[in-house]
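User: Hello, beginner here. Can you help me understand these amino acid letters and fold codes? It all follows right here:
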Amino acid sequence: MNALAMGWERTLLELKMYSREKEAVFFNFLFPILLLVMFSTIFGGQFSAADKAAGMNAGRLFLPGLIAAGVMLTSFQTMAMSVTVERDDGTLKRLRGTPMPPVAYFLGKVGLVLATSVAQLIALLLVARFLYDVQLPTDAGRWLTLAWVFFLGSFGGTVLGIAYSSLGTARSIGAVVIAPALVLQFISGVYFAFKDIPSWLQQVAAIFPLKWVAQGMRSVFYPYALASQEMAHAWEPGRTAIVLGLWAIGGLLLCAKTFSWYKRGTT
């Protein structure tokens, strides 16, 4: 079998293993969907008739941020935690000693992230559209923006998660990953309107990719007039692409530099 075929087989295996990890499925896959349902239900009554006439409701308000959070959870958090566990329990060491080429292992991880991320995105869009009457984009340009922001965010999150896995052990990785990920969600416009976050925290969030994924998604689903509420009073698609691209390239280089098949202290 060539590397691509083995990568496909590895992807199927990764999906089977992922589906058996109930905690991972809930917190990484279902959590953003459940939050969209909860927030849309709780805050739905706070929107006036004028807001609804303009196409703005609770579902539309929270959808971009939760898509961005879903990208981070299914790529960065999933990779950081799963690779750490596989390294510490000896799975990677055993795989390294098999005829399977290393690229097939990484293709399997990429396939896992793509499959779960796309499935989660589709679920979020279906829930938003049919349960909460969220207006979806009608022009190709916005869908194209959704595609490249989604791809850059998922790719960057995957390689950064693999690189980040070297910072912890199987026992500590949960806290090492979840704590900073949760903080970033709060300051990047996932749970609150970004304009309501203190300006110094906005500047901190702008260093990291999650803020730019969320901003890119807002440019897809929000009315054009709301661009004035961003930090630069514009959607900044060019800067979004540059920042996410740099994080993706930097994460890839860092991943190549730091990745190890063996648990620390062993060979």
